[in-house]
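Design job #97: recover the sequence.
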């Protein structure tokens, strides 16, 4: 089961990319991935680190997969994962576009948790403008 964020596009065609980093592990253990990594985007028939979207189209940004005893945080694709305990993590997600988004990059923090084999639960922790 996957934990993901839905991205819906309006306006002129734009190619989206997303990067994330683990801000902290909620059980206090060491952060296994504090540096930025590319995220996987999934749209109708396409998967990649960046995807073009037209008006009204949407894509999922896959953040984590539930596994027994914890979850795997997705790092650029299904085969590149970082295991974290089920207590969860706070992930900072940065979404950018080409051409650049009118309001600039979108930066949000999500608390991602799971218990054994349940879908990861996502909650917005912080929504702030990108630092320029």
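Job complete. Output follows.
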């Amino acid at each position: 089961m996957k934990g993901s964020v839905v991205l819906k596009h309006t306006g002129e065609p734009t190619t989206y990319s997303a990067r994330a980093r683990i801000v902290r592990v909620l059980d206090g253990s060491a952060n296994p991935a504090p540096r930025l990594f590319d995220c996987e985007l999934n749209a109708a028939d396409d998967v990649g680190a960046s995807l073009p979207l037209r008006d009204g189209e949407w894509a999922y940004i896959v953040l984590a997969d539930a596994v027994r005893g914890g979850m795997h945080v997705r790092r650029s694709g299904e085969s590149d994962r970082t295991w974290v305990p089920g207590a969860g993590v706070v992930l900072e997600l940065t979404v950018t576009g080409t051409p650049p988004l009118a309001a600039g990059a979108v930066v949000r923090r999500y608390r991602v948790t799971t218990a054994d084999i349940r879908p990861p639960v996502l909650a917005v922790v912080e929504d702030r403008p990108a630092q320029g």
